[in-house]
Amino acid sequence: MKWIARYVAYLAFGLAAAMFWLVFAMVVFGFMPLPGDPACHFEPQGCPNPSLLKQSLGVVCFLGSFPLTVYAFIPFRKAVRRGLGLPENRSSIT
Helix, strand or coil for residue 15? Predict the structure, then answer.
């Protein structure tokens, strides 16, 4: 039963990380990296193209989120295993 709790905690971390990065992109960079219909979409001239700076910040935010999430997951994984009383690594299981 501990393995179910462990993987539920891992799934919760994945969902929380995804939500964090979406909110981070929206608050810090001012855009939501999800497809949608902005208000200017329905105007006759359409939406203006985003600036090169805004596009590059979006790419940096997207690519930078992966290593930062992995670095945050490592201590989370150790805390979950410690909290459930499991060994730190598989080699110590006899």
Answer: helix
Cα separation of 45 and 43, whole Å? 6
For the residues of 27-81, what is the DSSP string, one character each?
A: HHHS---S----GGGGSTT-PPPPPHHHHHHHHHHHHHHHHHHHHHHHHHHHHHH
Q: Is the dihedral of CA 57, 63, 66, 68 positive or negative?
A: negative
What DSSP designation does 89 have? S
Report the amino acid identity of residue 72.
A
pLDDT category of residue 22 using cuts at 50, 70 and 90? confident
Q: Are 19 and 32 in contact (CB under 8 A)?
A: no
Query: What is the Cα–Cα distance from 46 to 39, expressed in whole angstroms?
Result: 9
pLDDT digits (tens, 9 = 90+) for 23-79: 887 777 766 655 666 667 677 777 777 788 878 877 887 888 889 999 999 999 999
